[in-house]
TrEMBL record:
<dbReference type="Pfam" id="PF26616">
    <property type="entry name" value="CorA-like"/>
</dbReference>
<keyword id="KW-1133">Transmembrane helix</keyword>
<keyword id="KW-0812">Transmembrane</keyword>
<keyword id="KW-0472">Membrane</keyword>
<feature type="transmembrane region" description="Helical">
    <location>
        <begin position="343"/>
        <end position="364"/>
    </location>
</feature>
<protein>
    <recommendedName>
        <fullName>CorA-like transporter domain-containing protein</fullName>
    </recommendedName>
</protein>
<dbReference type="InterPro" id="IPR058257">
    <property type="entry name" value="CorA-like_dom"/>
</dbReference>
<feature type="transmembrane region" description="Helical">
    <location>
        <begin position="296"/>
        <end position="321"/>
    </location>
</feature>
<feature type="domain" description="CorA-like transporter">
    <location>
        <begin position="1"/>
        <end position="145"/>
    </location>
</feature>
Length: 377
């Protein structure tokens, strides 16, 4: 059956998540004796029952525990099945790709007889493929319950401990629920395909009403169970949406609260800066006044120091006034300013002391500069 190849292409090693939503079901009736009649509707009534065959194939996605120590213990598996049924021999050929683990164990215990429906194995296959849906949805519901308990009790916004990763957890759970909803809808479509195909097969081989009724009841029971899972999935999506809105409100209000507190702190800082500015202005004014006084003192010093120097110089024993014996033109005695002959010793001492002071100051300044460079490096 060429349609089965479309399904098989979805298996194999993958380097990334792609083609994850493909689920399809196909049916086909063939008769090598009357290939030209197969294109018309209602052709099964004209098929040669000794050579005609029916085909049905589909792929199912289901959830199983992977057994690894991860936060999410569930993995989504894919399985495919193909049945070719011969109306002449009333025998089937089955191809099952990656079947559920429970299906293999139950298959070895199954006993077939002439009263069995030719499509009975599909019921067993789908029952095992959907057996873990209840536990899987309960697992997601428990995760959502834990997220809801975080915001269920009233307390200050800052004590909830929410951040962007909290919303990411909700997003991941909602993504799984949307994916589960898609799988459930496709599985229900598969059940419709099986039910339609069963009617054709039953007419072709004349199945007893009791066998058909039992098979249809199994299909309906499984469909009702899947529809219940669909409702549960929708309820969990609604519940997760309510939690998401609550998280949004808390994060928004907490952001507004932080903005308000930051504004109040900035106001306090601005007020403190204003006080500091006033203090600085006052200090600048006092400094200006002090500098004015310093200028006055400097002017006074400029006049006082030369006078003091002259007075100090003349008050030493290095110079003195002596009365000369010679008289001037007016007949009065003449006073002569005399300088001590060892005057050069005082001048030389002063020059040496000034030079030494300059050298010591330069050495001290260079030493301080080297120390600062060593600290920086």
């Amino acid at each position: 059956m060429p349609h089965f190849l479309k399904i098989i292409l979805g298996f194999g090693k993958k380097m990334s998540s792609r083609d994850e939503n493909f689920m399809a079901s196909y049916t086909h009736l063939s008769d090598p004796m009357k290939e030209s009649e197969l294109k018309e509707d209602g052709f099964e009534e004209n098929l040669h029952r000794d050579t005609a065959t029916s085909h049905i194939c589909y792929n199912v996605r289901h959830f199983e525990r992977h057994g690894r120590e991860l936060d999410d213990p569930w993995s989504c598996r894919q399985s495919a099945i193909h049945q070719g049924y011969s109306f002449g021999t009333r025998q089937s050929r089955w191809i099952v790709v990656q079947p559920p683990v429970v299906f293999l164990s139950n298959l070895s215990k199954r006993r077939f007889n002439n009263t069995s429906h030719p499509l009975d194995l599909h019921i067993q296959y789908l029952n095992t493929a959907t057996a873990e849906w209840r536990e899987y949805l309960n697992h997601i519901a428990e995760k959502l319950k834990l997220l809801d308990e975080v915001v269920a009790i009233f307390k200050p916004y800052g004590e909830f401990g929410l951040d962007f990763s909290s919303k990411q957890q909700i997003h991941n759970l909602r993504r799984k629920l949307f994916y589960a909803q898609s799988i459930l809808a496709n599985t229900l479509d598969i059940l419709k395909t099986i039910g339609s195909h069963e009617k054709t097969v039953a007419r072709m081989i004349g199945l007893p009403p009791s066998v058909r009724d039992r098979f249809q009841r199994e299909i309906q029971n499984l469909a009702r169970e899947l529809r219940n899972y669909m409702r549960t999935t929708r309820e969990l999506l609604d519940f997760s949406d309510a939690i998401r809105l609550m998280y949004d409100d808390i994060l928004r209000f907490y952001g507004q609260e932080l903005a308000h507190n930051n504004g109040a702190r900035l106001t306090q800082i601005a007020q403190a800066d204003s006080t500091d500015t006033k203090t600085i202005v006052s200090l600048i004014d006092k400094t200006y006044q002090d500098s004015h006084m310093v200028r006055i003192v400097t002017v006074i010093t400029l006049f006082y120091l030369p006078a003091n120097l002259v007075m100090s110089f003349f008050s030493t024993t290095l110079v003195w006034f002596d009365n000369d014996d010679e008289r001037g033109q007016t007949g009065s005695k003449v006073s002569v300013l005399r300088v001590h002959r060892e005057m050069w010793i005082a001048v030389l001492t002063t020059v040496l002391l000034a030079t030494g002071t300059i050298l010591i100051s330069s050495w001290w300044e260079r030493r301080a500069r080297v120390t600062d460079l060593e600290r920086v490096c």
